[in-house]
């Protein structure tokens, strides 16, 4: 294995202004090609967005029988009583709880690793890189199965539950956190920190006032990613959960029991909530940018 | 820094190449907790499962290491169909994702204009709803009395796909086709994101140069765009293939009794059988090694090292 240099990936050279394509005489063939491309893109976007539309529509459905699969008639019943099914909301609570703890722990540990990887020289670098890469390359079912086997062998099958799920979630979130923060750190201008030191800032001051604010968006993105990964995980959770039921496990199980419209309500809330958060943060970011 | 932490850091491993050797302890202090977590809960389980795969026993009496290599035979012979399905589904998913993802990424990168970020947001936003709910929504879309099935029936497409073994009867649901549809749907964003990143980096002036030198649109794409977007193609295919080969959610939710995949068998052996855990471990080992070998060969062949 070639030894990797410790220095971060070189910052891309000054962005070349991308000149807009000049309007040129175009063959009719290119016109057709462009429109086929446009049509394909539209169709594929419909393919990607259709399930979300279905979830939204079916959340206003009054299903016949146990399954909210076919449209019957309009009703706001499910929206009025999203927690009509106790188990649904308690499983959501459990998922949120695990998601928060897993996010906090994995973001803290991952930030430390990312700083060490980008800012320090040490041996065994490629080995550590491989260890960080492997959890992303291993099939989830393998990680779930082998971790459960370990828990069986050490603490016994009876002790599977909240903490084993959380441990597993931190494990599979960690690599993604490291990758996200590493790319932010590597893209940072190192001269800013040198400037702070030149202006007699102590290492702590440099870190708190220069480094941390610059890396913060990367850490926030990593935390969001970890939370999204944790709250949405089914496979590893199913292996390590024992008798507990997280939200994804509840949904998976409800395919066999009954599929109430409330599940679609929660699905819609997740979507709308995320879109609102993104919209608000975009607007806030633009406002801050214009104020400068 | 407390001395306790300093003691734990293997100072001997710190290279003396830096002028100030004291600084070399810091990275280990930073690395240690996270790496320990990965070693304890990722690496050791994988290694112990190798031992578990040659154990025999049952839940009541416990399992013992008996070097029972026959477990591997038991993990392969009765399940050859599942391995076949996993292979076919994940390869088909990767190919289809590339075929669908490339035009979308290309369109957003080169024709997106000021809508670029909005379009990319549209690729990601659906992923924020639970993927299970979105996968189950396909049960509504592909339902027997639904629009899609009616159109496919009227166009006599279902007759063709039935003969090809993609769909079953006059249904789309509960068929290999539905499984692959769900998998493509689930993994398409993982393909589009890296493709877009590498396409977006391409300087449009290069494409113009191609045009100026009398390259047709297709020639320009084949000789300039495609080679420059190869990192995205490699990243995207890996990000699609790796989760696809272990996925059993789509097979479980959208498939039928004849679309079983390896993941389902491992889950059954672990969670629903009392003595299946050694054979399940053997299957995990096979799957892990198989995936790693495939990925390594692919990376070697494609020659990318900066994946992370």
Descriptive report:
The complex is a heterodimer of chains A (292) and B (308). Chain A is mostly helical. Helix content of chain A is 70%, strand content 0%. Chain A folds into two domains: 51 residues; 174 residues, Orthogonal Bundle (MetI-like fold), CATH 1.10.3720.10. Chain A starts with 27 loop residues before the first helix and ends with a helix. By secondary structure, chain B is an all-alpha fold. Chain B has two domains: 42 residues, no CATH class; 229 residues, Orthogonal Bundle (MetI-like fold), CATH 1.10.3720. Chain B has a two-stranded antiparallel sheet. Chain B is globular, with a radius of gyration of 25 Å. At the A-B interface, helix 1, helix 3, helix 4, helix 5 and helix 6 of A face helix 2, helix 4, helix 5, helix 6 and helix 9 of B.
The radius of gyration of chain A is 24 Å
User: What share of residues are in beta strands of chain B?
Assistant: under 5%
The helix content of chain B is 55-70%
> What shape does the CA trace of chain A take?
globular
Structural class of chain B: mainly alpha
Which segments of chain A are poorly predicted (pLDDT under 50) over 5 or more consecutive residues? 1-12
Q: Which regions of chain B are unreliable across 5 or more consecutive residues at pLDDT < 50?
A: 1-21
In brief, what are we looking at here?
The complex is a heterodimer of chains A (292) and B (308). Chain A has 292 residues and is mainly α.
For this entry, give a set of tags.
heterodimer, A: 292 residues, mainly alpha, MetI-like fold, 2 domains, 11 helices, globular, disordered N terminus, B: 308 residues, two-stranded antiparallel ribbon, 15 helices, 69% helix
How are the SSEs placed, and which strands pair?
The complex is a heterodimer of chains A (292) and B (308).
Chain A: H1 28-58, H2 77-80, H3 86-119, H4 125-137, H5 140-154, H6 162-186, H7 190-198, H8 203-231, H9 235-240, H10 247-254, H11 261-291
Helix pairs in contact in A: 1-11, 3-6, 3-8, 3-10, 4-6, 6-8, 7-8
Chain B: H1 3-8, H2 25-52, E1 55-58, E2 62-65, H3 70-76, H4 80-111, H5 116-124, H6 131-141, H7 147-154, H8 157-163, H9 176-200, H10 204-212, H11 217-228, H12 230-246, H13 249-254, H14 262-272, H15 277-302
Antiparallel strand pairs in B: 1-2
Helix pairs in contact in B: 2-15, 3-15, 4-9, 4-12, 9-12, 10-11, 12-15, 14-15
């Amino acid at each position: 294995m070639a030894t990797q240099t410790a220095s971060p990936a070189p910052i891309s050279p000054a962005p070349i202004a991308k000149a807009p394509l000049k309007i040129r005489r175009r063959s009719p063939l290119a016109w057709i090609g462009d429109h086929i491309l446009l049509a394909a893109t539209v169709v594929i976007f419909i393919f990607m967005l259709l399930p979300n539309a279905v979830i939204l529509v079916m959340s206003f459905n009054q299903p016949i029988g146990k399954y909210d699969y076919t449209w019957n008639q309009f009703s706001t019943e499910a929206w009025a009583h999203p927690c009509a099914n106790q188990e649904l909301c308690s499983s959501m609570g459990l998922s949120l709880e695990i998601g928060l703890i897993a996010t906090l722990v994995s973001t803290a540990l991952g930030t430390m690793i990312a700083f060490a990887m980008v800012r320090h020289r040490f041996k065994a670098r490629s080995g550590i890189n491989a260890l960080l890469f492997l959890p992303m390359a291993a099939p989830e079912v393998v990680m779930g199965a082998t971790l459960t086997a370990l828990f069986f062998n050490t603490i016994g099958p009876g002790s599977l539950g909240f903490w084993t799920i959380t441990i597993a979630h931190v494990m599979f979130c960690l690599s993604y956190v490291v990758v996200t923060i590493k790319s932010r750190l590597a893209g940072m201008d190192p001269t800013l920190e040198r400037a702070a030191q030149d202006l007699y800032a102590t290492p702590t001051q440099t870190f708190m006032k220069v480094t941390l604010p610059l890396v913060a968006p990367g850490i926030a993105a990593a935390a969001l990613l970890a939370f999204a990964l944790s709250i949405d995980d089914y496979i590893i959770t199913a292996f390590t959960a024992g008798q507990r039921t997280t939200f994804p496990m509840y949904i998976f199980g409800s395919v066999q029991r009954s599929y109430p419209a409330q599940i679609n309500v929660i699905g819609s809330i997740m979507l709308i909530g995320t879109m609102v958060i993104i919209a608000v943060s975009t607007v806030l970011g633009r406002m801050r940018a214009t104020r400068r | 820094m407390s001395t306790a932490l300093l003691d734990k850091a293997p100072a001997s491993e710190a290279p003396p190449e830096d002028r100030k050797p004291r600084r070399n302890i810091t990275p280990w202090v930073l690395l240690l907790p996270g790496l320990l977590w990965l070693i304890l809960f990722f690496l050791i389980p994988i290694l112990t499962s190798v031992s578990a795969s040659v154990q025999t026993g049952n839940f009541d009496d416990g399992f013992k290491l008996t070097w029972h290599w026959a477990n591997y035979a038991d993990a392969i012979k009765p399940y050859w169909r599942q391995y076949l399905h996993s292979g076919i589904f994940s390869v088909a998913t990767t190919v289809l994702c590339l075929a669908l993802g490339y035009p979308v990424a290309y369109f957003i990168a080169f024709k997106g204009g000021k809508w670029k970020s909005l379009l990319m947001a549209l690729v990601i936003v659906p992923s924020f709803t639970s993927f299970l709910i979105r996968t189950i929504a396909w049960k509504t879309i592909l339902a027997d009395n639904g629009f899609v099935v009616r159109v496919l029936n009227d166009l006599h497409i279902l007759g063709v796909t039935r003969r090809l073994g993609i769909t079953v009867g006059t249904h789309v649901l509960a068929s290999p086709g539905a499984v692959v549809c769900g998998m493509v749907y689930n993994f398409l964003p993982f393909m589009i994101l890296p493709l877009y990143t590498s396409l977006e980096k391409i300087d449009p002036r290069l494409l113009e140069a191609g045009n100026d030198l009398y390259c047709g649109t297709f020639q320009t794409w084949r000789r300039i765009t495609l080679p420059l977007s190869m990192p995205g193609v490699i990243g995207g295919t890996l990000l699609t293939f790796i989760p696809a080969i272990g996925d059993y959610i789509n097979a479980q939710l959208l498939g039928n009794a004849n679309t079983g995949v390896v993941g389902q068998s491992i889950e059954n052996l672990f969670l629903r059988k009392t003595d299946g855990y050694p054979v399940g471990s053997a299957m995990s080992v096979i799957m892990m090694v198989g995936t790693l070998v495939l990925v390594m060969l692919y990376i070697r062949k494609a020659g990318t090292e900066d994946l992370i």
